[in-house]
Design goal:
Length: 239
């Protein structure tokens, strides 16, 4: 079946996407500034990435910053951008040690030149790693991705590079063209929506909603989501 592999009698997802939600509410409930929630959320990213690599997960995509998140207060956005830039630089050595390949999807040109440089450096350094494929969605929106893909496909067709636009050729114009569609989408914080995350690619993804805020999401929570996934019957339109 597409997007799955069987190991030790357990059907596991090849690609897991996570909507990391609840940093702000985690901080508010503790009477802390919102930025404290984001800092603690980084610790959750570290442990989930490490655990994913050790568990043999092939692809992990984390929704870090959406196109809509630019509407947040400038102070918070500024903090997130500084933290993101620092995080790429500080984590790259560990990613190399753990054989993690890092890539990014989203509107790269909406980010500062310095952040783009860090992203390019990290991508280049890890491109030959053969372990976990880690994708960070930053300044990303699913609708924006589809519109971008439509424009690229139409241009390619007008130039005679492709004869028609079908489902297979269209995927080549998505940001995720080199990544298999997600089998499992996890969202934390108790909210039950995709929030513009991989909306084209998630047509047949299984959805798992955790009531935990992202900073509280642990390795065993990821294991629970994957175990739940393994018990589901995926028919893809068949009986």
């Amino acid at each position: 079946m597409p997007g799955m592999r069987i190991k030790d009698d357990l059907i596991k997802p090849v690609h897991v996407g996570i909507i990391m939600d609840g940093n702000g509410r985690w901080a508010r409930e503790r009477k802390l500034p919102r930025v404290s929630g984001h800092v603690e959320g980084v610790n959750a990213v570290r442990r989930i990435v490490r655990h994913s690599g050790k568990s043999g997960l092939e692809n992990l995509t984390l929704y870090a910053f959406s196109t809509e998140n630019w509407k947040r207060p400038s102070e918070e956005v500024g903090f997130l951008m500084k933290m993101f830039k620092k995080l790429i630089r500080s984590e790259i050595d560990e990613l190399m040690e753990n054989n993690v390949k890092l890539s990014f999807i989203g509107r790269k040109n909406s980010l500062s030149k310095s952040i783009q440089k860090e992203m390019d450096t990290a991508t280049e350094r890890t491109q030959n790693n053969k372990g976990l494929n880690l994708t960070i969605a930053i300044s990303y929106g699913g609708r924006d991705e589809i519109i971008s893909a439509v424009n690229k496909a139409a241009k390619s067709m007008a130039e005679g590079k492709i004869k028609e636009i079908d489902e297979n050729s269209f995927k080549d114009f998505l940001f995720t063209k080199d990544i298999p569609d997600p089998d499992l989408i996890i969202r934390t914080s108790g909210e039950k929506r995709l929030s513009n995350f991989l909306i084209y690619q998630s047509a047949y993804a299984e959805l798992f909603f955790s009531n935990k805020y992202w900073p509280d999401f642990k390795e065993e929570d990821l294991d629970d989501a994957i175990e739940d996934f393994s018990k589901r019957k995926r028919r893809f339109g068949r009986i």
